[in-house]
Amino acid sequence: MADVEMTVKQAADKLEVDQRTVRRWLASGKLTGRRIVRGNLTPAWRVDAASVQRTLSDKSDGHSSGHSSSDKISGRPQRTMTAGQVAILADQVQSLREDGAEYRQVIELQAQAISGLAAQVRGLTEEVQQLQRLLPPAPEEVTARQGWWGRLWRRRG
Question: What is the pLDDT, as a whole number, of residue 32?
């Protein structure tokens, strides 16, 4: 069985993982294989069947020790954490929750400020419109209002 080789697809099917996972394992050395040149095509991997068998036995040992079936799908080994690591993660989660609460308060205050500024802008816009109605029209507006008669009169004069 030492000389038997598989394609990446065959190895992926046998290991019940994605082909990309097999390629990553080949690159990392978890699986052994060789690259073959195929003329103008991109090089392809040939996976050593013995390394596939070793990985299968490693996975079956991992499943009997309590690894979940999702590990079989993702192709990642499950890691157990120490109590100290769990405590550190719990502290980090608590810190992130506190930061999130602070950010929510800041966002609420900024939303209120924006709402107040928008109301001021609306009020100022209404005042500008009222003032524009009170002002006399600009000279170009007067001539535009006179229409064809005003334009004709200016030509003669």
Answer: 92
What are the residues whose beta carbons fall under 8 Å from the beta carbon of 45, sequence distance 6 or more?
A: 7, 8, 22, 23, 26, 33, 34, 35, 36
On the question of pLDDT at 59 being above 70, the answer is: yes
Q: Which helix (H) or strand (E) holds 128?
A: helix 83-134
Of the candidates 18, 4, 19, the residue with the CA atom closest to the CA atom of residue 50? 4
Q: Alpha-carbon distance 123 to 2, whole Å?
A: 84
List, for residues 76-109, the tens digit of each pLDDT value.
556 677 877 787 888 888 888 888 888 889 899 9
Whole-angstrom Cα distance, residue 155 to residue 95?
Answer: 79
Cα-based distances in Å from 113 to 38, 89, 109, 110? 66, 36, 6, 5
